[in-house]
Amino acid sequence: MSDLRQILAQGKKRIGILLGAGTPVSINISKTEGKHEPLIPAIAGLTETVKKSLSNDESALVTSVIKSLGEAANIEDILSKIRSLSSALKGSDQKIGPYTQKHYDDAAKAICKKIGEVVNCKLPSNETPYNRLAGWIGGTDREHAVEIFTSNYDLLMEEALENAKIPFFSGFSGFHEPFFDAASISSNDDLPSRWARLWKLHGSLGWGVNEKGELVSGKGREASELIYPDHLKYDHIQKLPYTALFDRLRKFLMTPDTLLLSCGFSYCDSHVSAVINEALTANPAASVFAFLYQEIDKESAAKELALKRSNFSAYACDKAVISCMAGKWELGKNNDNKDWQNIRASFWATRNKERNQVFTLGDFTAFANFFALSKSDQTYSAVTPLLNVERV
């Protein structure tokens, strides 16, 4: 962690950040002391919220889909399955079960609409982890641009970067109807390094199709029809942005001496994990540090990847898997060093109602604070109270 702190402060290494659905969960909007109400629920909470919003007919269709997928299916699994069934019925009058293509299309639209409503929220203040992370991005002269990859649909990172007046590129160019330019994604190193890169792997609020059938952004926060693409089969307009964005993740990890740091991402997304696994196999010079909120045994996807890839390290609250070796955390021998104790407080502290101290960087609040304080000599103990909120 001391070495990582130094890397983050110097601005010389090529750094990428992967943010998953767990990141907005760290922002507490509850007005009741001791209670945690996330700004946006994690995937399990989002799934339940969407299911409760559906009409009786849509709910019955979703229930039938869940039976084929298993009870553990989340809303992204369900949406992908519904779209694949719709695609199978395209142009025919046949049914799968009692449902036609229109039934599946209507259910998919209803799901996307509700997801859009849930994630369509704004940063509550300038003191969020997103703002701190943006401040770190803009606070150092860099040899290489910071690249942010996210599976989230919300606009929280965009807001934080704009609030900090940090220019960024997301693959779109223009003013009236910004268009997607795949060529710029593959050659974006020509842009100044002070420009951050923001890649929305699963689509975003605001994306839509114009009257010409072209993919554009700037359609407004309520536009949600292009969130979470079906990775199995989709038409040309849908295929272009997502394949280009995944190729960008692959290219980043194939570049020598790169470091990807993830937070709030469980690695259960097989599409993202497959790209990471493939790239790390081909490029031993790249590294991934996965910071995980739960115990290591509950983070099975990341643990499995870390056990077979020496350049993938999984850091959970209770244990870690580093260089394919699993072990419990053990405090080092620098207990008498005051400065080291202060630094340690930025990643080793009590959390929620836990009595014992744990590794905390799997919490996005601690993760962003660690970045923001990487160049600071101030005492780190002030970070700890931010984590002492019960997480539901």
Short description:
With 392 residues, the chain is α/β, with parallel strands linked by helices. The protein has helices spanning 2-10, 43-53, 56-69, 75-88, 101-119, 129-138, 156-163, 182-186, 236-254, 270-282, 300-308, 338-344, 364-372, and strands at 14-19, 147-150, 168-169, 172-173, 179-180, 196-200, 208-209, 215-216, 258-263, 287-291, 312-315, 319-322, 325-328, 348-349, 358-359. A hairpin with an 8-residue loop joins β14 (348-349) and β15 (358-359).
What does the largest sheet look like? 9 strands, mixed
- The domain count comes to 2
Q: How large, in whole angstroms, is the Cα Rg?
A: 21 Å
The rough form would be described as globular
> Which segments are poorly predicted (pLDDT under 50) over 5 or more consecutive residues?
231-237, 378-392
How would you describe this protein?
The chain is of the alpha/beta class and 392 residues long. The chain folds into 2 domains: 2-39 and 134-330, no CATH class; 43-119, no CATH class. It contains 13 helices and 15 strands. The chain has helices spanning 2-10, 43-53, 56-69, 75-88, 101-119, 129-138, 156-163, 182-186, 236-254, 270-282, 300-308, 338-344, 364-372; strands at 14-19, 147-150, 168-169, 172-173, 179-180, 196-200, 208-209, 215-216, 258-263, 287-291, 312-315, 319-322, 325-328, 348-349, 358-359. The protein has a 9-stranded mixed β-sheet with strand order 3-6-2-1-9-10-11-12-13, with helices on both faces. The protein has a two-stranded antiparallel sheet with strand order 4-5. α2 packs across α5, α4 packs antiparallel against α5 (101-119) and α6 (129-138) runs parallel beside α13 (364-372). The protein is globular, with a radius of gyration of 21 Å. The two termini are 28 Å apart.
